[in-house]
């Protein structure tokens, strides 16, 4: 029976560790029983599906749709996997390849800020609150996001040193330009916030 947040909060540190370990072992056993393995980053997900030795691409039927995934061998009555995806994907940016008797299915998530609990909705879920994301590099981010992160980092450094943030520097620069354009005004007693 799942433990509520309140019950978990009341546990001792040792009880939490034991529960987390048991949950991880149960989760790993459930995932190992699937006919595929999978990994994810915030923006993408990779599914590895083993196939019989000697299988070629033309022997496969792989269907990747916005909310559906299906993998099977041509002529076989049962699919290796088939069902509704946990969340929507970018169909045009998702692909599959076959190498070393494994189909690699690369899915680009539509919502790139959300962890998936499972690949197919009818398969066992993982606890996404326990995911520890890998460190990312600024160079991995798109231009707009990178700019925002760099600004936040700069502002944080400035605050730690007791210096003005980028927004405060912009205001000070605008005030200097205004003062230079209007020397007739006296700003000596002005309180600027």
TrEMBL record:
Span list, region Disordered: 1-32
UniProt-listed Pfam families: CS (PF04969)
Domain CS: 31-120
Biological process, per Gene Ontology: protein folding
Positions with biased composition (Basic and acidic residues): 7-29
Predominant localisation class: cytoplasm
Purpose: Required for nuclear movement. May interact between microtubules and nuclei and/or may be involved in the generation of force used to move nuclei during interphase.
Protein name (database record): Nuclear movement protein nudC
Gene Ontology cellular-component annotations: cytoplasm
Matching InterPro entries: CS_dom, HSP20-like_chaperone, NudC_fam
Keywords: Cytoplasm
Keyword Transmembrane helix in record: no
Gene Ontology MF term list: unfolded protein binding
Subcellular location: Cytoplasm
């Amino acid at each position: 029976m799942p433990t509520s947040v309140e019950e978990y909060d009341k546990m001792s540190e040792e009880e939490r560790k034991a529960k987390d370990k048991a949950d991880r072992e149960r989760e790993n056993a459930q995932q190992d029983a699937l006919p595929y393995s999978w990994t994810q980053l915030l923006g993408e997900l990779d599914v590895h599906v083993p196939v019989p030795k000697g299988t070629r691409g033309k022997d496969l039927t792989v269907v990747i749709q916005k909310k559906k995934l299906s993998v099977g061998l041509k002529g076989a009555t049962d699919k290796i996997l088939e069902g509704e995806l946990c969340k929507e994907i970018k169909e045009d940016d998702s692909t599959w390849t076959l190498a070393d008797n494994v189909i690699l299915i690369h899915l680009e998530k539509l919502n790139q800020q959300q962890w998936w609990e499972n690949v197919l909705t009818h398969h066992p879920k993982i606890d996404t609150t326990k995911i520890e994301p890998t460190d990312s590099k600024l160079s991995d981010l798109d231009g707009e996001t990178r700019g925002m992160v760099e600004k936040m980092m700069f502002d944080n450094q400035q605050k730690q040193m007791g210096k003005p943030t980028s927004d405060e520097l912009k205001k000070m620069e605008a005030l200097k330009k205004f003062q230079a354009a209007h020397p007739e005004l006296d700003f000596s007693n002005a309180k600027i916030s």
